[in-house]
Design brief:
heterodimer; A: 596 residues; Ubiquitin-like (UB roll); Alpha-Beta Plaits; Fe-only Hydrogenase (Larger Subunit), Chain L, domain 3; five-stranded mixed β-sheet; four-stranded parallel β-sheet; 18 strands; 33% helix; B: 385 residues; alpha/beta; de novo design (two linked rop proteins)
Chain lengths: 596, 385
């Protein structure tokens, strides 16, 4: 589609851009930097912080460049005297209601307000400090997210994230004027509202008004405690993102460096969540086949489509908003929560440790995992299965605190056992990955042949489209799977809860006949998780996804059922998928929650 | 400038609104709009956008659905004329909406009534039912509905009003797009003040010439004023535009008027020494109708503080210059009064008010500087000491 071109001048330099381009985008094209705060590439336009104002020749008022499309003949000044004065005033005003304890702040060095203040050097600011002592209260009710209104600049990025990307609206604007702030329903604590702990708001908060609940100190404490045997697991998506904390390009594969860094931090064993991702495929794949058999052969009333259960944000979303579909969720725990009980039973026995002295730490791209680990049902081993959950960002901080030069580390490999994985486990990190991994195994189990896609890459389930659909015709099955002969297996994949909601509404209205649905709470899947390095944009997430698929292609094994440690685990401990031990350790159940 | 006060009776005059409409419906939309353009009628809510142009823009938009909105969220402190118009000549307001509907091609009209006027709801609903029936009988497809506000001043701002009507938080939108392109429910919408709609009806009734002959080149016609404060004649008056403030004070003052706040809290304060050369109209100081007179017993510091307290609370809070700026202006004048900040701090605040004026998202923040600067400039000593 060809677009009309619009000609304008920015700082007297002519430029021609597509119709509909904003002044901000046009200025960036000419490499003029205009500061922004409320603007975010993933979100709709707000135009409320006003730091991006520019002067349009002949206009009485300044214009918010992020919110105004270009028009023919426009002459824009991005740094006139008026603009400079207004911008400086606006930054200064924001600082008067901001708790600027920067050196003590969790986001110190990663704060967009700090960055702009730095540029303008607002040292001797003239206006009156508006922040009162009573405003300096943090909401620490949630095990995942800390909300600190004294840091909030009311840009509403979190509100737009929660409403538009996630369709949750746990955060909303309340009151007006000097009392206006971002709050929850009836001002309830974050832990008592519909919040899914996805942490997408944290990824988009320009300041430290929303941050993860940090457990860095607790983890260092157990590392230093000689009586504790501390094992760490790393989620798939962390290995293509942690490098960003050390200045590397998004998507750079640094698995080996990350493992080395964890060892230097003092973890006793460095293990991999990818292992339990492979295990998830075996359990969940068998669960799907069993449900299909019960539906097609036994004529039982089975909940279909089956839905994935790896994403704890999605689980809580379902519990709040679609409790009538809880039976559709796979009963499999997430890979993180499969790892915990296995570490404290099977693994503890192998390494001859008392599970009471074991600490399981996970490094996750996710904040909802912090909540998940706290769920009372996650105690299959008889202990708290996963003791501490750290985000990718927190791991970055720990590595810096420990004085480890990440970029110069030599690659190291995971410890055994619970450290071996296949490419199928890695791709859990990107949207469509669980589906692809499941299809690679399930198709082969049923037909005895590999999935009919070049190099095992099931392209139709990949990519950043909000809801993806695919179908695979199952032919020439093994005798024991006769009932699946000729069946067209229909699947759907959604990422970002707003897309999940759209898909769920179709399912609810009976307008969808899928067998299996994968949902990841975060946009683009775990690589775009709420615990991943900030900033996040579609471009960054695409690079991380490319890193994930690259990692997959470089693995010796790429099908979960071929993971030798998984095979050994079944032979020596679990005995069979969906068996008695699996039921006790690897499966869970869900509870309806109120909508408010 | 007109050199006398002239009372006019266009708004409250009882007319046969149905026969005016009947006549209008026989004409084309372009003819109706041309008359309004020709009359020079400008929006009576205060901003003064040419009404005919607004209708033309809305008419020129291609859309399956368009809307007419009557802005009856009369929240400006000191303004109470729309209440009187709605009380006394509701059928003229409804007919004005239908006329606008005919002009722009809309079949639905909405009255957005401020929450404090809910006591009018029963009567208005009765009138609307009757009017909608009359429109049906005239074979003209147009229905009026009513929506109640919830008490936020900012919802008088046209885009915040539409957000509120759509069930959202009343926060002004970014412009462009303007309501005539992208208004209520994203459809082309003409939103007009109560009084504007009645004038449009009267222009359709009497022709543009009679209207043009009133007022001045920039400020055609007459205007309904809400007069309050230190005056023996508080109330509603329809006066020809373009009078001098001196004549006005002579007519309505109590003999001791030291200042007049023209245009409500968001308007300008004029001190006695400027009465003579101040014109009430778009070439001078425009007003949405509010004229507040103050005599020498009043403290201008208290008046300014009242206004700033009002804005501090009534800012919607979304944009930085308005939300924080209002608080800073209020805290700032208090600090100067108490001697915590030096008198020169007022200069910093005046610079800030300039930023608020040019960088705020909507008219609310943009106009807080009006009362602030005009009061500080004219009564600096009352603020400081």
């Amino acid at each position: 589609m060809s677009k009309f071109k619009v000609n304008l001048k920015i700082n007297n330099i002519p430029v021609s851009v597509d119709e509909g381009t904003t002044i901000l985008e046009a200025a960036r094209k000419l490499n003029f930097n205009i500061p922004t705060l409320c603007h975010h590439d993933d979100l709709c336009v707000a135009g409320n912080c006003r730091v991006c104002v520019v002067e349009q020749k002949g206009a009485r008022l300044l214009t918010a460049s992020c919110a105004t499309p270009v028009s023919e003949g426009m002459e824009i000044l991005t740094n006139s005297m008026k603009v400079r004065q207004a911008r400086k005033h606006i930054v200064e005003l924001l600082l008067t209601e901001h708790n600027a304890d920067c050196t003590k702040c969790f986001k110190n060095g990663h704060c967009e307000l700090q960055e702009i203040s730095n540029e303008y050097r607002i040292g001797d600011h003239v206006f009156i400090d508006l922040l009162q002592e009573k405003d300096r209260v943090q909401d620490i009710s949630s095990p995942a997210i800390v909300k600190d209104d004294s840091k909030c600049i009311r840009c509403q990025r979190c509100v737009r994230t929660c409403a538009h990307l996630q369709a949750v609206s746990a955060l909303a604007v309340t009151h007006k004027g000097n009392k206006m702030r971002i709050s929850t329903f009836l001002d309830k604590p974050m832990n008592d509202v519909i919040c899914t702990n996805c942490g997408q708001c944290i990824n988009r908060c320009p300041t430290a008004a929303l941050t993860e609940r940090s457990y860095i100190d607790q983890v260092f404490d157990v590392i230093y405690d000689p009586s504790k045997f501390v094992v760490v697991q790393t989620a798939p998506a962390t290995r293509v993102a942690i490098g960003e904390e050390f200045g590397l390009e998004p998507g750079t594969r640094v698995t080996g460096k990350m493992v080395a860094a964890l060892r230097r931090l003092g973890f006793d064993k460095v293990l991999d969540t990818d292992f339990t991702a492979d295990l998830t495929i075996i359990e969940e794949g068998n669960e799907l086949l069993r449900r299909l058999k019960e539906a097609l052969v036994d004529g039982k009333d089975v909940a279909l489509p089956m839905m994935t259960s790896c994403s704890p944000g999605w689980i809580k979303f379902q519990e709040h908003l679609y409790p009538e579909f809880l039976d559709n969720l796979s009963t499999c725990k997430s890979p993180q929560q499969m790892f915990g009980p296995l570490a404290k039973t099977y693994y503890a026995e192998k390494v001859n440790k008392n599970p009471a002295d074991m600490i399981v730490v996970s490094i996750m791209p996710c904040t909802a995992k912090k909540f998940e680990a706290e769920r009372p049902e996650m105690r299959g081993s008889g202990y708290k299965d996963v003791d501490f959950v750290l985000t990718t960002r927190e791991l970055g901080m720990m590595i810096k605190q420990a004085g480890i030069d990440f970029n110069k580390l030599e690659n190291e490999g995971y410890d055994s056992i619970l450290g071996d994985s296949t490419g199928a486990g890695v791709i859990f990190g990107a949207t469509g990955g669980v589906m692809e991994a499941a299809l690679r195994s399930a198709y082969e189990i049923v037909t005895g042949r590999e999935v009919p896609f070049s190099n095992l890459n099931i392209k139709p389930v990949r990519g950043m489209e909000g809801v993806k659909e695919a179908a695979i015709k199952i032919k020439d099955v093994k005798p024991e799977w006769k009932f699946l002969e000729g069946v067209e297996l229909k699947v759907a994949i959604a990422h970002g809860l707003a897309n999940a909601k759209a898909l769920m509404d179709r399912v609810k209205e009976g307008k969808a006949d899928f067998h299996f649905i994968e949902v990841m709470a975060c946009p683009s899947g775990c690589i775009g998780g709420g615990g991943q390095p900030i900033p996040t944009t579609m471009e960054i997430r695409k690079k991380r996804a490319a890193g994930i698929y690259d990692e997959d292609e470089h693995m010796a094994l790429r099908k979960s059922h071929e993971n030798p440690e998984v095979i050994e685990l079944y032979e020596k401990f679990l005995h069979e998928p969906l068996g008695h031990r699996s039921h006790d350790l690897l499966h869970t159940h869900y509870y309806p929650r109120k909508r408010h | 400038m007109k050199n006398k006060i002239k009372k006019v009776d266009l708004i409250f005059e009882k007319v046969d609104h149905l026969s005016i409409l009947k006549k209008a419906f026989e004409r084309t939309s372009d003819e109706i709009i041309l008359d309004v353009i020709d009359s020079g009628l400008r929006g009576r809510g205060g901003a003064g956008f040419p009404t005919g142009l607004k209708w033309k823009f809305a008419k020129n938009e291609e859309s399956d659905q368009k809307y007419v909105i009557c802005n009856a969220d009369e929240g400006e402190p000191g303004t109470f004329k729309d209440r009187e118009i709605l009380t006394n000549v509701p059928e003229k307001v409804l007919a004005g909406m239908a006329l606008c509907g005919k002009a722009i091609g809309a079949t639905e009209g909405y009255i957005y009534l401020r929450a404090e006027y809910n006591f009018l709801l029963g009567m208005l609903n009765e009138k609307i039912r009757e009017f909608n029936k009359q429109m049906k009988n005239m074979n003209f497809e147009f229905s009026v509905f009513i929506r109640s506000g919830s008490g936020a001043y900012v919802c008088g701002e046209e885009t915040a009003l539409m957000e509120s009507m759509e069930g959202h938080r009343g926060e002004p939108r970014n412009k462009p797009p303007f309501p005539t392109q992208h208004g209520y429910l994203a459809k082309p919408t003409s939103i007009n003040n109560v009084e504007t709609l009645v004038f449009a009806l009267m222009i359709a009734n009497l022709g543009p010439t009679m209207f043009k002959e009133l007022g001045t080149f920039d400020s055609r016609g007459s205007k309904v004023f809400s007069i309050s404060g230190d005056t023996p004649k508080a109330g509603i008056y329809e006066l020809e535009l373009g009078m001098s403030l001196e004549d006005f004070v002579h007519e309505f003052g109590d003999g001791d008027t030291k200042a007049v706040q023209v245009g409500g809290a968001s308007g300008f304060c004029v001190a006695r020494k400027h009465f003579k050369d101040t014109v009430i109209g778009f070439e001078g100081i425009p007003t949405g109708g509010s004229m507040m007179l103050f005599n020498s017993t009043r403290s201008m510091y208290n008046i300014l503080k009242d206004y700033l307290e009002f804005f501090e609370e009534e800012s919607c809070g979304q944009c930085t210059p308005c939300r924080v700026g209002c608080q800073q202006l209020l805290k700032g004048v208090e600090a100067v009064k108490k001697g915590i900040k030096p008198a020169t701090y007022l200069n910093e605040l005046q610079k800030l008010s300039e930023t608020m004026k040019i960088a705020s998202k909507c008219g609310l923040g943009q106009s807080v500087g009006n009362p602030f600067n005009s009061i500080v400039n004219n009564f600096r000593e009352e603020i400081i000491y």
